[in-house]
Predict the 3D structure of the following.
Amino acid sequence: MTTNSTLQPELIQRFHNVIEELGPEQLKQMLQDMHTIRAFEERAEQLYSLGKVHGTMHLSIGQEATAVGAANALQDGDYLLNHHRGHGHCLAWGSDVNRMMAEFTGKETGFCRGRGGSMHIADVDANNLGANGIVAGGVPISTGVGLSIKMRKTSQVCMVIFGDGAANEGALHEALNMASIWDLPVIFLCENNQYAMSMPMPKAFNIEKISDRAAGYGIPGETVDGNEVLAVYEAVKKAADRARRGEGPSLIESVTYRYKGHSKSDKQAYRTRDEVNDWMENRDPIKRFGALLTTAGITSEAEATGMRDVALGIIDRSVEFSDNSPTPDVAGLMEGVYA
Amino acid sequence: MTTNSTLQPELIQRFHNVIEELGPEQLKQMLQDMHTIRAFEERAEQLYSLGKVHGTMHLSIGQEATAVGAANALQDGDYLLNHHRGHGHCLAWGSDVNRMMAEFTGKETGFCRGRGGSMHIADVDANNLGANGIVAGGVPISTGVGLSIKMRKTSQVCMVIFGDGAANEGALHEALNMASIWDLPVIFLCENNQYAMSMPMPKAFNIEKISDRAAGYGIPGETVDGNEVLAVYEAVKKAADRARRGEGPSLIESVTYRYKGHSKSDKQAYRTRDEVNDWMENRDPIKRFGALLTTAGITSEAEATGMRDVALGIIDRSVEFSDNSPTPDVAGLMEGVYA
Amino acid sequence: MRELTYAEALREGLRQAMTADSRVFMIGEDIGVYGGAFGVSAGLLAEFGAERIIDTPISEAGIAGACVGAALAGMRPVGEIQFMDFVTLTMEQLVLQAAKVRFMFGGKASVPMVLRMPGGSGTGAAAQHSESLENWFVHVPGLKVVMPSTPYDAKGLLLASIDDNNPVIFVEHKLLYKTKGPVPEEPYRIPLSQTQVVREGKHVTVVATSIMVSRAQQAADELVKEGIELEIVDPRTLKPLDDAPIIESVKKTGRAMVVHEAVEMGGFGGEIVARIASSEAFDYLEAPIRRLAGKDIPIPYNRELERATVPQVEDIIAEARKLARGEY
Amino acid sequence: MRELTYAEALREGLRQAMTADSRVFMIGEDIGVYGGAFGVSAGLLAEFGAERIIDTPISEAGIAGACVGAALAGMRPVGEIQFMDFVTLTMEQLVLQAAKVRFMFGGKASVPMVLRMPGGSGTGAAAQHSESLENWFVHVPGLKVVMPSTPYDAKGLLLASIDDNNPVIFVEHKLLYKTKGPVPEEPYRIPLSQTQVVREGKHVTVVATSIMVSRAQQAADELVKEGIELEIVDPRTLKPLDDAPIIESVKKTGRAMVVHEAVEMGGFGGEIVARIASSEAFDYLEAPIRRLAGKDIPIPYNRELERATVPQVEDIIAEARKLARGEY
Ligand SMILES: Cc1ncc(C[n+]2csc(CCOP(=O)(O)OP(=O)(O)O)c2C)c(N)n1
Ligand SMILES: Cc1ncc(C[n+]2csc(CCOP(=O)(O)OP(=O)(O)O)c2C)c(N)n1
Ligand SMILES: [Mg+2]
Ligand SMILES: [Mg+2]
């Protein structure tokens, strides 16, 4: 659980198969995506403090490995449902960053024509069925998507991402059970970042691992280090393979940490600065994965560092795109309610 | 799992402590109550077919041991919340059979002045907070009752009884978790009668024992033979003791069987007559407990058989009471909505 | 024409929709071997198999979510909520998800689902099995709300609802299931949002929904003997509402009342009154607009109390008579 | 008099209620160390401890159930739902349990609970965090519905709600939390179901709720310059509704409009219109009764779209002017 480079050879050993499977190009792209996500979030925060953004936002800085590891384990045609802290999932899914930024800033060129905003970015054409402002709101929907897949007899899977807090919503229980009894191809990915707003996970649960709930539904449950992108990849890949074989859903808990407050207006009285610093310094997923790829000789250090600049460039252009985009016309206000 | 009398000595041995604890008077009363419940249900069905009852009803014939075992494990001042198939729980709780019958038949003298009916019989003065027409409807309420007990610092406990079907409602999940993290004195008693309306338990669950769900909340879970009244007593007593010690909730699954259809209009196409007959003949809780008490020398056979007549007399009188009771006056229709 | 019960008409509609389109399926509690609590899906399991007549655990939010997700991913689910009361457990999925997804995603997704549910009192099922909550859904942008009052409408509106690309809340009535009426055999659609004048008359406009349509007819049969003619208007689709025929009717009669079973306060009747009171019909009004609806109490168990809680034929007669005679 | 914000007034009310009665406690998400999403309970944890300021997991049905159960067993819970939208997850417990228990048990139990929740749009929180669902609750017998529009009313109505022996849905407004107004220090109660005429005027009666009361005031300030005087009436408690002052006002002005933020269709405005249209004020009406309310769409994210979705001061001015000038 550190970025100490003496550990890297061990990790390379452990993830040997996975590294082979993904190949250098995809591995590099994954690191790049992690950088891009972080850059997006940082810019989002900046735009917010400049007053360019109305509403709220939930930043996933520190959690990039979960988004990237999970998305890379799936295929074209698979489905994604995610949650309020969802920018990273959406970017990792490959959705256009320009249209994301435009949505975040409420522009007509945004994925949702500026109607959705940060909490509702969706890329329906890519089977990304959207972030959700309701904690666990996407979870019951995922069983329906799984049911559709089963009835249509395709080899798709549906991944639904939710937080530790979401795991105590009743909807989760119903969805896990239904997916289990019908062997639906759903991957329930719980991104446990240790807090639900101000609620520390140990106060909200009387168990140590959220994945322990899986047994109550007769499905596999696994807890992985959510700051280790390859660990997340591996677990999600296994769950996806299982789902594609028709063997049903899995519950994966990815343990990670958010560096920023819950949303724009969080004084963070519920945790210490030291705790945050510890995670930032010793377990940062980007540093770790960068170190792994360089140690493994897949990137040079320069290349790895350069990715940060690439990311910033991508984000600059997305802001430019959004700045140049029209705001929605009030005349179209009533559009798009009914199909 | 049979009434075969050769098994009785073994059972007596096994429940030796419990038999001691309860003493002959209470044991006899328990058998009497089981008879009374059955007689109540038989009469309810008869009244229904005579057209004397409007609405629906859910009979618990075959499940008497759960009601009686559970109620006897608790004390005055404890709370009960139960469900639609609740006549037995209410009678076992000691609530007045006359007022129950009057409620069932919609009379002003009924527990709820004829406003509630079969699915809503409550005896608020005795902390019996009522049956519930909503599957799992009483479950979240039980955590609130538990919270009140904890805040008032009394040694009461709250028992909530629900069916196997109720175990798949999201509300249950939320309630179990809340009761667990706060160590509330709640006993979650799942009366698994193998079917939720037409849904056989194995089709609705991908686990064998509903009590296996307890582990996901870090609380004890136990499955008992719900047709063995002393087994139910023992488990509920243990849970109550634990709750009174401030150690929190328990989940108990009591496995039993309903002889009658789900409600008035059930063709029972989802099960075989043989299956029903097997339970009736080989595992009947009243026969079993009667045999146990006679084998143990606590009742004579004559006394045990006589209880049936006592029960019929009690029920006759309750019908007489209800027949002689006034129907609610329409002039009072708007009463009792607000306090 | 051949007569069917309301339940049979619904079943025939379901059968025809499922036969015509493999994306249509049913999901709900006890809809398979049991045939549904009110028998609507009886026999469909044998015909279509357990893959398309899906019995669920008792998980209403899960059922609603399954419909939303399946609809988003290419299917056309028809969910059943066993009693309308239990829809209270699904409000998040219906209101915050199904109804909003399309708009929230800038018009890029659609949720073609139908959620059927029986409302209403009259069977002695008491307070938790007798709700009439349709106006909650009327209040939610993105949903459609359909409420058939006859077997003919039941089938035609159900087929149109299944064809619709939006989430449709389809409210049936327990007491109507066994009522009979003419129903064509072939599939037919009654366009959603088409209010119908079901009886012409010149003295009082009665806007009635669901079971109140037939009660209003009975009232009209009586009143005609006194020379009072009711014009009965059935919106059939409550949202979106086709209010033109209502306004027209009131312009003709000059007197209007709304009758529904749901609780009066905060109910759909207010919407109808408001539409009339802000329309050009206002100038034609010769009397106050009246509502006749459920009393502001939970539905009681006792039969007489239950009956007294919601409008009966005699109540409609009394109210319409007063209105016609200028007693307001 | 001393001025407090709406949030501070609520907090003071909570503090006084908890100090006076050990049965009163708070339960909800992030109400402890975080102080609540809108800061209403800031500091109360330090004052009353974690036993009485109870942070919950994200389990809204569980929160509602905990309130119902605690209320049935001798306590007086004040629950908080972080955004009104999430109340969709609690409808079963509120509507089928809290509201019905007393009647269903023949008047033998009571459920003295308050459930606070912020409604409304205006913060850019989009479709799933901006609901105005009060009329759902108005439609439910057994519930009371309170909606304060000023800091003064917020404190007085909250204390009265906590005193009340029935389940009270207490609807706050996000945009009001920071608004200031005079609030007495000592505890005081504003009786539930007491409609208030908050501004006298002779030309048009404006029935407004929550944030629309201050918008109507601003509109009135403008219109008075044109010689148009609005009479503004704030029901404050929507259920049970004290409609006499509304009827009286309309008898005086002869013209009426209702303004609320919630979606117009199926909304509370219909109830008000219906009350007027069936009352003795009907004969005094010189113009149709108008509603001005939220558009029939989910709340959009974009700021301008969001603003255009619900009534603003200029919309009230335009509508009231037309009404006063007889342009309907
Ligand atoms: C049903 C519901 N309840 C509460 C909220 C308010 N809320 C938004 S995010 C959040 C915390 C969620 O925690 P978690 O699921 O762990 O996700 P995280 O924010 O940590 O990523 C809360 C309470 C909500 N949006 N929906
Ligand atoms: C929320 C809800 N969903 C569905 C129903 C209809 N219903 C009543 S009882 C029942 C079956 C309940 O099964 P179980 O919990 O096992 O109890 P049992 O009837 O077997 O005693 C159903 C589906 C209901 N009353 N409430
Ligand atoms: Mg979290
Ligand atoms: Mg059962």
Summary: The pocket of magnesium ion (ligand 3) is lined by residues A 163-165, 193, 195-196 (CB under 6 Å). Chain D has twelve helices and 14 strands. Residues 6-20 of chain D form the longest helix (15 residues). The mean pLDDT of chain D is 98.
